[in-house]
Amino acid sequence: MKRKTSNIVLIILAIFIVTFTIVCLWLFYLYQSIPDTLITCVYGLCGSECGVLGWIKVMKTKYKNESEVNEDE
């Protein structure tokens, strides 16, 4: 089975987010303080990465559908 790069990136991203969240919760338990700016930036970066991957998939699907329509004509 061929694995797509975007699927691998999403799996790694999900593992990273879960690990990051657990570590932040542990650090909050220890020090009663959280790094607000770091958390905001990490979640923003991960969200934008998922958005870019989604946009790429939509554009590939759109291009594929347009090329199929042109071949039929």
How would you describe this structure to a colleague?
The chain is mostly helical and 73 residues long. The protein has two helices and no strands. The protein is elongated, with a radius of gyration of 19 Å.
For the CA atoms, what is the radius of gyration?
Answer: 19 Å
End-to-end Cα distance, whole Å, is 33 Å
Derived from helix and strand composition plus strand pairing, the structural class reads mainly alpha
Shape: elongated
Give the H and E element order.
Answer: HH
Largest sheet: none
Q: Strand content of the residues, in percent?
A: under 5%
Query: How many strand units?
Result: 0
Poorly predicted parts: none
Number of separate helices: 2
Question: Mean of residue pLDDT?
Answer: 88
- Assign a percent range to the helix content: over 70%
Give the quaternary arrangement of the chains.
single chain
Topology:
Layout: H1 5-31, H2 36-72
In short:
The chain has 73 residues and is mostly helical. The protein has helices at 5-31, 36-72. Helix content is 88%, strand content 0%.
Index terms:
73 residues; mainly alpha; 2 helices
